[in-house]
Amino acid sequence: MAVNYGSKRVVVGAHYGLRDWLAQRVTGLLMALFTFIVLAQLLLAKGPIGYDLWAGIFAAQWMKVLTFSVIIALLYHVWVGMRDVLMDYITAAVWLRLALQIFTIVWLVGCAGWAIQVLWRL
Fold first, then answer.
1. HEC states along the chain?
2. pTM (2 decimals)?
3. pLDDT tens, 9-35?
4. Domain span holding position 90
5. Positive or negative CA dihedral for 72, 78, 82, 85?
6. Is 7 contained in some domain?
7. The predicted structure's pLDDT at residue 47
8. Cα–Cα distance for residue pair 5/47, rounded to 1 Å
9. Distance of alpha carbon 46 from its chain centroid, rounded?
10. Would 6 be classed as within a structural domain?
11. What's the domain count of the chain?
12. Other Cβ atoms closer than 10 A to 54
C-alpha cells in the first residue's frame, strides 16, 4: 500500500519547526550578549567584586529592563525546550504529559514573578 506524503500529510508531535528553532537561537543569542555585557562591566570595574559592585551594575533602570527581558527570553527558551522534550519522550500517557506541561508553565510564571520582585524590590 502506497503512502501519500502530499499536502494532506498530518504531522504530529513537536511540529512547530522553524519558528521554535529560530526562537531557541534568538533567545540563546540574547542571553549570550547579556552575559557578555555583564562580564564586561565586571572586568572593567575597579575595586573588589562584592555586593556593592553587583548592586551598582543592576541599579540602573535600563539594566533592570534588559535583565528582565533576558529573563523572559530565558523562560521562553526553557518552555520551548521542555515542551519539545515532553512531547518527544512522554508519549504513552497524554495526561502525564499535560500535567508536566502545566507544572512547567506554573513554575515558569512563578519564576517570572520572583524575577520582578528581585529586580524591582516589590
1. CCCCCCCCCCCCCCCCCHHHHHHHHHHHHHHHHHHHHHHHHHHHCCCCCCHHHHHHHCCCHHHHHHHHHHHHHHHHHHHHHHHHHHHHHCCCCHHHHHHHHHHHHHHHHHHHHHHHHHHHCC
2. 0.79
3. 555 555 557 888 899 999 999 999 999
4. 18-120
5. positive
6. no
7. 85
8. 65
9. 32
10. no
11. 1
12. 14
